[in-house]
Design goal:
alpha+beta, 3 strands
């Protein structure tokens, strides 16, 4: 995620593509690893996932309680 951190559009596209790929291959849980750092990238990924048109693609999102640098997206 870090190479595309500076561009919101690229970040949205990467998240959307990962969701489509995971859904097409039958994955139940998609892991997105923005890393720990300051939390800005994690917040942007969560904001991207919260968009209405993207929310339709998954059942729920959670941050890993043991690792703040990992986001778990549970697909439908």
């Amino acid at each position: 995620m870090h190479p595309i951190f500076r561009n919101n559009r690229d970040l949205d596209v990467a998240v959307r593509q990962a969701l489509f790929r995971a859904a097409a291959t039958g994955v139940d849980v998609l892991q997105i690893i923005p890393g720990k750092g300051t939390g800005k990238l994690r917040d942007r990924v969560l904001a991207s996932l919260a968009q209405t048109h993207i929310r339709k693609l998954y059942a729920r999102v959670e941050t890993d309680p043991d690792n703040a640098g990992r986001i778990l997206v549970h697909l439908r």
